[in-house]
Each structure stands twice: as structure tokens, then as C-alpha cells.
């Protein structure tokens, strides 16, 4: 086997292992919290038209993220294992899209693909909610994958504009893909639109003076993306929900307060990634003779870093964004950091050793984290399954008021939202209400596990 085929075989093996790892954690993540609320609603839809009608009602009264929510409704109408399979595929596709957006890498660069996965697993924003939890994954993982998929296709087309085949097909399909990408997530879709406009601006600037540089698909793609974005942010439900949120400050003080909260959120979510990216950039500065050379070699990384910053601070328009709203920005930051990693030249042995050492250390951390968290997730999954069987039995018996055990303590892990989404002793707690509605009880109460004797 020659070197090229060996590299391809190793790369494909890495992709398969990545898919297997995320699939296991998907299987070990039970339905919880909003899955139950939406699941109960979806069960009454009866057909795909019913699901669309439900989503239209949500568009008019609560949220404009219709693409992601419709995906969620479709999966909630199926067995959870279907979601587990497709969610694992989408996660791998997201990692591959990140990989494809890295310039200057080697062909079948397993090290780069490995780094992408490590950074997402170890530093992905609220990974348990944005990647593994069904409702959260459809909103954030799937949304980010759709957005980055569109950016990847558009970037590929721009880079191959001189010999792009089937331009008519691109002209028709890009706006469709663009509408989906623009209609996913407010700040991430906005960041994606900004990226496309900057790419198109750079393309036109570099080819200024040439005739016929603008092709129809270059316009229809962003136009579709903008259309989807406007449909999302102008949803009547957004304005209704916005009126329900209250802030401590108003006017300029509200903006200052939001700005400070964003800075603190960036620190809490991205400090380690930013430190790694900064150190890599400093190394590149040491290797290059001028800032012009740095900008030339690092243009892609700098651009993604700018998009990350814009995506984060776009949340200044939101009174109180959820922590998981930063997931898409984190994806953009991962691209920037990996690009800086690739741009560090390996001519000197010390820098080659530093890059290999970084990969080795992250792999070691990931190994222990995955094994430990996997064991805890299996325990949490077992208890959720025992509870589900018990609740189904009580529902068949026609029980009206049901008591179930809380999770055992000491199994908490960053890869499971099981404890945050667990029931409480109070039957009026919103999670308890979700369980009661899902199974058709009047109330569901919780008791500490040590006081439970039924099973």
C-alpha cells in the first residue's frame, strides 16, 4: 500500500471512529424536558401537514426558527434511534465541513480532522444541550451544520468559478440551500450571511477590472440566504416573545449591560480556545518577516476569527441569550484556531513537536474524559429507562397521581443534561408538569432515591 492510499485509509478510519463515538453518546442520551413538551404536541399532529401547521402556529406565536423546529418535530414523530443515527451523521458532517474550510492542509490530513473533533468535544458550547439533547441538537447542531454546509458550497464555487460546471444547477439550488441556511439560528445565520458577503467582496476586489466576473449563482445564493434570514427574524412570534422578557436596565445602560454579559460569556465559553489560537498566531508572527506576510498566510483564520466575534456580539440585540446560543460562534472559532494550527510551519523541529504535542495532550484528555463520562451517562440512561418503564406501566393502569425517584447523586457529567432536566419533588415544577402531560397523569412527584422502594 503506497503512502497516499495509507493516508486515505487512516483518514476514513478516523471518520468512522468519530461517528461511532458520537453515536454511543447519542444512544445514552434519553428524551428529556422540551422533548416531552414537543413530543406530546407532535403526537397529535397525525401527518406531515399537521406538523407543518403546528410549526406555523409556533412561527406566529413564539419563534421564527422554523427550519430547525420542523426537523425536530419530524424526529419526535419517529423512534429515538432514528434521531440517534442521523444526529451522529450530521455531527460528522459538521466536522468534515470544518475540515473542508481549512486552507493549506495536506490531503487526507488526519491530524487536522482529529483536532477539529477534539476541539468540538472538549470546548463545544454546552455540548450536552447543543449536540446530544434532541431538542437542542436540532436547533444548534443541525442549524450550524446547515449554515456551514451552505458556506462550504458557496466558498467552493467561488474558488472554482473559472471552471465551475453546471452553473445553471448552482444558480437554482444555491438559493434554496441559502434560504435554509438563513432560516436556522439568528446570530449564527447572521454570521454566515456576513461571511458570504465578505467572501464575495474579496472575490470582486481581487478580480477588479475583469469583465464578467459576477455569475448569477453568486447573487442568487446570498439572496436566498438573506430571504431566509428575514423570514426568521421578522417572525411575529419573535416580537410576542420579546415583550415577555424584562431587563433591569433600559436605553444605553441596557446595551452596556448586554455588552458586558457577552464579554463574560466569551470568557466562560471560549477562553481556552482563544488562548490556544493566540499562542498559535504568536508563533506564526515569529515565523514571518512582516505583517503583510502574516495577513497573506493567515487571511482565512483571521476572517473566521472576525466572523466568530461578530456572531457573538450580535447577541447584544437579545436581552438575555441562552448560553447555547454561542454554539455556532464556537464552530467559527474552531475553524479559526485549526487554521492557525495548520498555518504554523513545521520546518523547525520545535514547532513540529509543539503541534504534535498539542494533539497528543488533547487526545489523552479526551480518552479519560470519554471513558469516565460514558460510564456516568450509562448510569443516568439506565435510571431514565427504569423510570420510563415504570411510568408507562402506571399510564396503562390508569393512575392519576404518580411518584417516581430522582436520579441518584454523583453521576453528573458535562455530557449529560440529565440532572438539569430531572424531575423535582414539587409536582408543579415545569419538568414534572411535562412528564404528567406526556404520560397523561394529573401530577408527577419526585422522591429522593434512598426513599424509593418500588423498584
What's the domain count?
Answer: 2
Q: Note the overall shape.
A: globular
Q: Which structural class should the secondary elements be placed in?
A: mainly alpha
N-to-C SSE series? HHHHHHHHHHHHHHHHEHE
Mean pLDDT: 94
Radius of gyration: 24 Å
The helix fraction, in percent, is over 70%
Q: Main sheet, how many strands, which sense, barrel?
A: 2 strands, parallel
How far the N terminus sits from the C terminus, by CA atoms, comes to 57 Å
Estimated share of beta-strand residues: under 5%
With strands numbered from the N-terminus, the spatial order across the biggest sheet is 1-2
Number of helices: 17
Number of strands: 2
